[in-house]
Known about the structure:
- Chain A has four domains: 59-260, Beta-Lactamase; 262-356, no CATH class; 402-439; 444-520, Response regulator (Rossmann fold, 3-Layer(aba) Sandwich), CATH 3.40.50.2300.
- Chain A is 49% helix and 18% strand.
- Chain A has helices spanning 5-8, 14-40, 46-94, 105-125, 174-179, 200-204, 255-261, 350-398, 411-442, 447-457, 462-472, 477-484, 488-502, 507-520, and strands at 130-135, 149-150, 152-157, 167-171, 183-189, 192-193, 217-218, 222-223, 230-239, 245-254, 272-277, 283-284, 289-292, 306-310, 316-319, 324-333, 341-349.
- In chain A, a hairpin with a 7-residue loop joins strand 16 and strand 17.
- In chain A, helix 2 runs antiparallel to helix 8, helix 3 runs antiparallel to helix 4 (105-125) and helix 11 crosses helix 13 (488-502).
- Chain A is rod-shaped and about 170 Å long.
- Chain B is an alpha/beta fold.
- Chain B is built from 18 helices and 16 strands.
- Chain B has helices at residues 2-18, 48-58, 60-64, 76-87, 104-110, 124-127, 132-137, 160-170, 180-193, 205-215, 233-247, 258-263, 325-338, 341-351, 358-363, 372-387, 399-422, 427-440, and strands at 33-39, 66-73, 99-102, 139-140, 143-144, 147-148, 154-158, 200-202, 251-253, 269-273, 283-285, 291-293, 297-300, 310-313, 317-320, 389-392.
- In chain B, the strands form five sheets. Chain B has a five-stranded mixed sheet.
- In chain B, strand 4 and strand 5 form a beta hairpin.
- The model of chain B is unreliable at 19-23 (pLDDT under 50).
- The A-B interface holds A 105, 138-140, 143, 149, 158-161, 163-164, 168, 174-175, 178, 183-191, 224, 226-229, 254, 256, 296-298, 300, 303, 322, 355, 362, 366, 369-370, 373, 376-377, 380 and B 5, 9, 12-13, 16, 19, 30, 34, 43-46, 54, 57-58, 67-69, 71-74, 78, 92, 94-95, 255-257, 259-260, 263-264, 278-281, 283, 285, 287-290.
Amino acid sequence: MRVPSIFTQKKQTMRRKLFGYMLVLVLILFVVIFIGMLLLGQYSSTKDKISDILSLQMEVFEREIVAHQDNLAMRNVQLSKDASLIMHSYFTKERITFDDLANSQLHINSLQSSFIDLLSREILQTECSGAFILLNTTVNTSLENADNSKTGIYIQRNSVNLADDTLLLYRGNAKLGKENEIMPHRKWQMEFDSNKFPDYDKITESDSSVALEKTFYVTNIVTLPGTSEKVMLVAIPIRGHDDIIYGICGFEISANTFKMNHSQPSTFEHLVCVFSKKQDENIVDYKTSFTSGITNGYHLAPSENLSVSRFSKTLSLFSGDEESYVGITRDIQICCGDNADHTLTVMIPKYDYTKIFVKNVIQIVFFILLLLFFAISCCGYFSKRYISPIIRGLDRIKKSELGESESSTYLEIEDLFVYLGEKEKEFSAIQAKVDKLAYSRKNEIDPNDYEYFKMGIKTLTKQERTIFELYLSGKSAPEILEITGIKERTLKFHNGNIYEKLGVHSRKQMLRYAMFYQNENGGII
Amino acid sequence: MKKSLSIILSIMFVILCMAGCTTKSELHADEPVTLTMWHVYGEQADSPMNRLIDEFNKTIGKEKGIVIDVTMMSNSSQIGGKLLEAQADLPGAPEMPDLFFCHSNNADALGTENLINWHDYFSDEELNKYVPEFVKDGMVGETLSVFPVSKSTHLLFVSGGQFERFSAATGVTYESLLTWEGFFDAAEKYYEWSGGKSFCAFDYLIRSVELNAISKGAEDFYTADGWYDFENEIFKSSWMEFAESLAKGHIVVSDLYSNTQVMTGDVISGMGSSASILYYNDTVTYADNSQEPIKLKVLPAPQPENEKQFVTQAGVGLCAYKTTTQKAEAAAVFAKWLTESDRNLSFVTETGYMPVNNDSFDKIENYTFKNEAYKSLYETLVTVRKNCIAKSEPSYPNYYDKVTALYNNLRAMQNELKNRYASGEDAITLAEETWNVFCAIK
């Protein structure tokens, strides 16, 4: 790397030198500030920043999910107890047992009527898309698949809009539904095929000694029979007073409800929050996941499986053929029952990440260029401001324009002016004295002798001339002996020759003539 | 040196200051504009429109910088009400969407000055590709505020399995149902054959009465305030035909949508929107949970014998709320994409609507449908388009509130009328009662 000439050239103008040093100072300051920020942890990269924000989003998302599931579990326990109580009361009143429900439209319809009331209340008070009570019995045991046909009521919200309280009857008696202003779903059936309810048998096989809360079951995300809507079902068994499991009850959370209820406020435009059953940690299975985006915004939900790989110390890369994302994952366990291990993922599209990264780089480059611009401008301006009075002062000195009236911005320069003024005065005084002395001595010099002196100077040999000039410079005889390295006798010999050639008879006379000669010739011999 | 350094520094400063201030086009892929949307296509979970929107967002939307975000799916009636609430900014009302599907009367109520005139974004050449009646249907005054995306008409949906048994027993055929005369006769026979079950549930009874009256020569029977001229004899006569059948229990006003009554075996047929095919189940389920395949047969709405044939032309269209020119441009891009020939056909054939693009209509005959019911529907729609004159539905302010009130009244009295007829009361007198109820609605 070439060092700028401003620092390498020995001779520079003061301004350029000062400009260079100021610039170096500014750059050193930048480096020191940057290192300081780095050491104090005040500087973070784009990856760190994105990771920090995503971590915060994850915290919020996790809290919401856990709170929602806790709430569902709590309400589900109560729903189970209420359903059990309704059935027990009905059995007592009608003096029948659970087994008497099979093939009885009368009893089943009576219970369903009560269930509609109960579920209509529950569904509107719970953040869910549907609620159900399914019993281990059927209205017609003679039909094919009767063992898996479960009578009951399954109602759904007509719309994800919470302000819309219109309900639909997905399973149950259509006539009862209509009487309660609950129209049949377009894929309505009278009963639910338990083969199509994930882990129905597992839910109903729970041990009666286990607390009801502990039986809370969260199913995998499945497509509801006859529809294309992905749902997750949470359920608890309905236990009778005689320890018989009457059936199950619970809530449905649809993909749209999840999206609506768990959208997050975020600074990211396309944040994607994914909720999925814990399975292969290297894959995000979009078919068995729920996603949500930002509040009042659109999110690009994955439409393919995403493979997970390490992106940075804290971030993971979720790659698909069509879209890739950058984000973080966290395993959580919701509620207290089995099947509760889930994975949360909070991520942004890769192109958004790249956009943020490029934007940050541009901002940093812009900031550095701006600082550099101002640093260079300031260095240039201030060096000029600083040096200009000095340059002006030097110019004045060069032009001998010094006087008492002159002033400068700098005290040092002003003092210099005063000092140089005084020196000039002293010099003038000395010059005057010299002139006066020269004038007075001029009368003591014989013009003929002086003319002979002048002619004699030109006839001096080289050695004589050297000795003559040493005398003129004020050197004594011993000093001349030491300087020239000649012997005293030789010096006396040369002295005699010099006196003779210059027509003088003493050193004093020779020096007087020489000073007069110098005065006449501007100091030159 | 000094001069050149100053120039370089000045240029650098100007460039830095200008960075990021370059002129942007209205649509930019890096900074997508989001358009919120309310639509009516699939309020019960499955939505072909949502799938199309996802496709748009991932393709042309991504390329041009447009994101469509569905914030409400509901029926046209609810959306109409919510739009007015949103526009008035009532407490608790949702935010006004950028795009929405509604009827012309809703658009009129919102004010055409607040809506995009699609004429500004479609050239005449482009508009000529669409079915002219459908484009005309979207005109509110001089403004094309409601852009056609799909149109429906009213058809007769018959539960095929049950009808075959009924037909075998009585000799009534599908051809018998092509005229109102044959239809009412079949209804009477079915009532008797089934032991008192109604033959058909009507979703839009008043529309059948209107079209029947128009076929028989009734002229403008609407009043200035958007209700009916009860002095119109032909209109009353048409009403009485249906009312008599209603009083006898041969037909009923549906609970809300006739498909629910067909799929529970309460009635054997339903008169409803062609789009209701999306809501028809594959089976009929009886009270004892026994089931049979529905074998849905779709027939044209019956017509008066030897008269001109009229069918209704219904369905909402796409409106865009006027906000920024960028959003307007984005809305036009979406509308054009949505109604492209093949896409329009693929969309409507999933939802039971008629396409709005001329090319799409021509391609129906060679289209492969997903099942027999849909094939039957589109064969019928092509026939209807060839043989019948389409009439737009009334769009007077508060008209549909009055119609809803009428249906509620008829629903409340129809069982009692049926019982009274069964106990010997005169059907004409009972039908007069319904007329009086009708006339009482102001």
